[in-house]
Amino acid sequence: MIDTIVNALVGLLGEDWRAGLEYITNGKHMAWYASFKFTLIAAVAGAFFAVIFGLLGAAAKQSKFAPLRWIGSFYVNIVRGVPDVLFFIFFPLAFEQTVEYFFSRARCTAEEIANNAGSWPPCDAAQWYLSGNDYLILACVSLGLVYGAFAANVIHGAMISVPKGQLEAAQAYGFTEKQVFWRFKVRQMWVYALPGLSNVWMLLLKATSLLSLLQIADIVLWADRLGAPNYLARAGLVHPDWRWKYYLALFIFYIIMAMISERVFRALQNRASRGMVTVN
Amino acid sequence: MKKILLPLAIAMVAFTGSAVAADKVRIGTEGAYAPWNFMDDKGKLAGYEIDLGMDLCKRAELECEFVVNEWDSIIPNMIAGNYDMIMAGMSVTDERKETIAFSDEYFPADPSRYAAAKGDEFDFDNLKGKNIGVQGGTIQAAYAEETFKENNTIKSYEKPDQSVADLAAGNIDILLADGSFLDPVVEGSGGMIVYVGPNVQIGGGVAIGMRQKDTDLAEKMNAALTEAKADGTVDKLVMEYFKKGPFYTPAEEEKKAAE
């Protein structure tokens, strides 16, 4: 199918374009294009987790139950303060080791644990394999955790901004506390939260370029591989260091994504503001 | 919220848990070290070690699969169980032998060489104020640290490509690397990059790295390797990828045994 497209384009543009078009549609480049899905999945799933953790964090932060409030504040303040790169490589590894620890407690004999004190995990049954896809899920959760802390802060602020009168009126109509929280506070806070959340989304989107740190063959890793100088004809087109060209392509991708995001958030903002009297 | 999160957590564990049972033998490689192991134009792994590894697995009746892992974490990740063997142009050294086991060699000790931009001259007995590039975690890195550190700057690269790119860009004066890796670079650079100075013999031969406890696997792979050397497969692949050899004809093997 790709050959057909290349041939059609060559027919349109002339023979001079053939080598170039064939180069940018070879298997290595197709793998690069396919790897954009990891970035998009990480962004969307990461955002999904971030909103969930954000809501939970914000709810915890203003809970009437003090320990829950401490947990909320702890999460928001600590996780926001840790560099995202660090958390991004820390969380999946720590999670894996924790799971393996429980596996080893359940599956290894005491003898094996005693014999293999120096090596981890103590027995093969406790070994937990992680494929690239598993790492992708863990990466999404880490993104969710890090940016969820930012989102929690934004959502907390937005919840406070919901006019007290609205909530008191709801209470006066006999809604339970839970109903007031979910149907009035959460429903109305989006108007105040969305500008802040759009900021968090932009940060999260940029952080998706870190996926290669977890050995996921993402767009950055492929750009690296494709742009690296090649002097061996067997390994493909011989070319000097072309990494800047591929990184430039990534710049453009992220700029386009940012532009699309801006439009989506504007539409969301309009939708959230329906039927609400807001200052702006 | 709990109602949403719990099934999600279960789904996640179920999904990730599916990868636990792995019957395939997995071989870790770098995928960026032509002609040993690299990504070809189709985006697939190729190279001497890929062809040889698959051949050996067939002989040993193992179902194998190559996985790509960065060089700097290639040993720890094998020990952690991400894969079972390493075929990544790794030389046998005493230091590595402390943590992992090696098979018999499948490439003889390969002299390391210095590459530099055309026209530059160096006094290797008295090297001063130079930027010397190496790939981190290699035998060359250890050698350069030991030999040149005092009067020169050692720049350590994560990937071999980066070191070559930086040499071509003039950011380092000298690149120290395996001759087998530099040969195509020097040849393909059109005279811009040339060899300078002496050859240095640093590590031993190149072999398959394995976990020390996997003695069964080591036996199988060594048996396959002996067979592949005897019937000329190894020499054929070495000639195909490196234009060198033969190293493992019966006559050569006898000579080595006599030494």
Quick one: how many beta strands of chain B?
A: 13
CATH topology of the largest domain in chain B: D-Maltodextrin-Binding Protein, domain 2
CATH architecture of chain A: Orthogonal Bundle
CATH architecture of the largest domain in chain B: 3-Layer(aba) Sandwich
The CATH homologous superfamily of the largest domain in chain B is termed Periplasmic binding protein-like II
- Low-pLDDT windows of residues of chain B: 1-22
Query: What is the count of helical runs of chain B?
Result: 10
Biggest chain-to-chain interface with counts: A-B, 42 and 41 residues
CATH homologous superfamily placement of chain A: MetI-like
Instruction: Please report the first level of CATH classification, the CATH class of chain A.
Output: Mainly Alpha
**If you average the pLDDT of chain A, what whole number results?**
89
Strand line-up across the major sheet of chain B = 5-1-6-13-7
Specify the overall morphology of chain B: globular
Keywords (chain A): Membrane, Transmembrane, Transmembrane helix, Transport
Family (chain A): Belongs to the binding-protein-dependent transport system permease family.
InterPro entries (chain A): ABC_transp_permease_HisMQ, MetI-like, MetI-like_sf
Pfam families (chain A): BPD_transp_1
